[in-house]
Design goal:
- The chain is α+β, with helices and mostly antiparallel strands.
- It is built from 11 helices and 16 strands.
- The chain has one domain: Nitric Oxide Synthase, Chain A, domain 1 (Alpha-Beta Complex), CATH 3.90.340.
- α6 packs across α8 and α7 crosses α8.
- It is globular and about 70 Å long.
- The two termini are 14 Å apart.
- The chain binds arginine (ARG).
Length: 407
């Protein structure tokens, strides 16, 4: 949870209520009475309850504000499922499974967020609500095989080790794409494992339209990326359990998950399939060729199976459209250049040439209080604030950030 004083929380709460009412064109009297009620609850109990509409709007704006996502043109179409009443880990796991099925369904992927119980009031008195510890609902196991290197996803060596220590059994002959169980922490901080029932996770087998040897590598990937370890913060209230999914951009799977040398490290083998010689020094660009063809294969295979996927060129165009729309709505979009620019054909996409700044606005999604959480703050550049007040706010924010980081 973010480290915020009661005043700061209250300020975020009323600013959010303001935003909600302004952007949804609500009458002024409604806004005023809601703000009063929220401020009162916040000061008394350090907590207030979002209405279902505020919750849905907050989750969408949090996406709109998240600087690292290139797919934000569609922020307003996020489907929000209110699961705040669900407190029991078994039921959270059940809903997570339903979430994956709903999102993946026919192959046309819907962007959904399931929002579970928030942190209420003072942390010392109330236990933290249960949350999902796994980074995504679907992850492939990674094994270290002494003397032989690695099998599976190297990024998940640690979760795999923990799951095994807790009694999870990999298949009799472990493979490169064994699906890990979901790990949930209950209110007392104990870990619980939930295996996804077969049929929950849809996967796409990777083949190349021309280079048939690539199918021989037996690569595949799941269709629904569902981030489950980020905390959603809306108007001073934190939701530590709020798994959300989008659909894949081709480079995420091809260039990074399969291509990275610290993940599946497939480039040398893809190069061999293409008849290139990765060891030889004659062609320093064998990696580039392997990357391009691996991207072609992943995109082709997802399209073949009718599963939603965007390529990085289209994603870049859509991001430019998002920026334009934001600007014409009078907002300045946040962007984190190193995350927005695709790892493939970078300079040929328009986003490469766009300057961006991460303004770390709230509402937002963040990973942890210490890293990105400490930077989040209200936007104090609004014109309607008197100049002196604005300067003062900015100083205050800077001071708070520094103090929080030092802790
Ligand atoms: N990059 C992550 C992965 O490869 C997924 C992150 C979310 N991606 C998305 N398209 N919504 O699994």
């Amino acid at each position: 949870m973010r480290r915020l004083g009661r005043w700061e929380r209250c300020e975020e709460a009323t600013a959010f209520v303001d935003l909600y009412h302004t952007e949804n064109q609500q009458p002024d009297c409604v806004r005023r009475s809601r703000k009063r009620a929220v401020a009162r609850d916040m000061m008394r109990h350090g907590y207030y309850e979002h209405t279902p509409e505020e919750l849905a709007y907050g989750a969408r704006v949090a996406w709109r504000n998240h600087a690292r996502c290139i797919g934000r043109l569609f922020w307003n179409s996020l489907e929000v499922v209110d699961c705040r009443a669900i407190q029991c880990p078994d039921l959270i796991a059940g809903r997570a499974i339903e979430h994956l099925r709903d999102a993946g369904g026919s192959g046309k992927i819907r962007s959904i967020i399931s929002i579970f119980a928030p942190v209420r009031g003072s942390r010392l008195r109330e236990p933290l609500p249960p949350y999902i510890e796994s980074q995504q609902l679907v992850r492939y196991a990674g094994y270290s095989i002494p003397g032989k290197g690695y099998l599976g996803d190297q990024a998940n060596l640690e979760p795999t080790r923990i799951a095994r220590a807790m009694g999870w059994k990999p298949p009799p002959s472990p493979g490169a794409f064994d699906i890990l169980p979901i790990m949930i922490r209950d209110a007392q901080g104990r870990r619980l494992l939930y295996t996804l029932p077969s049929g929950t996770v849809r996967e796409v087998d990777i083949e190349h339209p021309v280079h048939t040897e690539i199918a021989g590598l037996s690569l595949k990937w799941y269709t629904v990326p569902c981030i489950s370890s980020m905390i959603l913060t809306i108007g001073g209230i934190d939701y530590p359990c709020a798994p959300f999914n989008g659909y894949y951009m081709v480079t995420e799977i091809a260039s990074r998950n399969l291509g990275d040398s610290l993940r599946y490290n497939m480039l040398p083998r893809v190069a061999q399939c293409l008849g290139l010689n990765p060891g030889g020094s004659t062609d320093p660009m064998w990696r580039d060729r392997a990357l391009t063809e691996l991207n072609t294969a992943v995109l082709y295979s997802f399209k073949r199976d009718g599963v939603t996927m965007v390529d990085h060129h289209l994603a870049s165009e859509q991001y430019m459209m998002f920026v334009q729309r934001e600007q014409s709505s009078g907002r300045t979009p946040s962007g984190d250049w190193s995350w927005i620019v695709p790892p493939e054909a970078a300079a040929s996409t328009e986003v490469f040439h766009l300057s961006m700044k991460d303004r770390a606005l709230v509402p937002n999604y963040y990973k942890s209080r210490a890293s990105d959480g400490a930077n989040l703050a209200l936007n104090y550049d609004d014109e309607y604030r008197p100049r002196l007040r604005r300067h003062w706010d900015r100083l205050r924010i800077r001071l708070h950030r520094r103090l929080r980081k030092a802790k």
